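Here we describe the complex-level prediction in full. Unlike the single-chain runs in Section 2.1, the two entities below were treated as one system.
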Amino acid sequence: MIDYSVLLYDPVYAEIGVSAMLTTTAGVFEITVIDDTRAKAQTSNTVEVRSVGPGAFARIPELTSKGVGRADYISSVLSFNGRMWVVRSYELRGSPNGEDVGEVRFLLRSDDA
Amino acid sequence: MLDVRENILARLVAIVATMPSIKNVYRNNVDLTEDQLPAAAVLDGDEETGDHTDASMRPSNRPTLATMTPEIIIFKIAPQVGPDISTLRRELIKLVVYDTQLNQQIVKTGRFGNGAIRYLGCQTDLGWERSMFGALKANFLFKYALKPDDLL
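The structure predicted for the assembly as a whole is:
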């Protein structure tokens, strides 16, 4: 069976991943994330307000190996690329080898706005 | 020229600009960025008369009563956007319905004429952007005399 972590995720994270500090109630962990901040707009009536929807991908095996479980995700603090965010929610991205070896997309928010 | 409709809309922009928590006020701007917030947009409203039921012999150029329903939308991005939007709503309603220039000189309400200013209600929008996004659309009704002679 193809190991997608070894053949796909690890090389991708090695190339475009950045170092991040994840602070949870259990401690502070250094992980690798892929910045997935996207343009985002809200429309009210006919008026569009453009901003960003901050997000980041991380590998679940890396989080698990460091003792970070799903219950720790929400409200943890994630710092990368010079900014600090709070994890407001997350999406699980399964892999062909199962969701436990896939990715998680952290949905982030700023407390500074 | 005395275009009451235009005067009302221009005055609404001036009124909203006095709100201390609003950074920018726009008229009919439908494309904003987060850096412009907190902001307000005054959107020209629909205008109606009741003349579709008037099949009398009244000459077509005689004065009639018109109602306009402009919308004012307030936008903010903040971690706790709910209380902020509520505060802005209170400020906005009070400024519009108490404005002396609107009541006495433009719309002419009460003892000044047969105009009227009404707050009709509001709708809210919420969503996530960099932080929590909140918008509140306040609907107002203005009744005023439309005099074709004054439009020249």
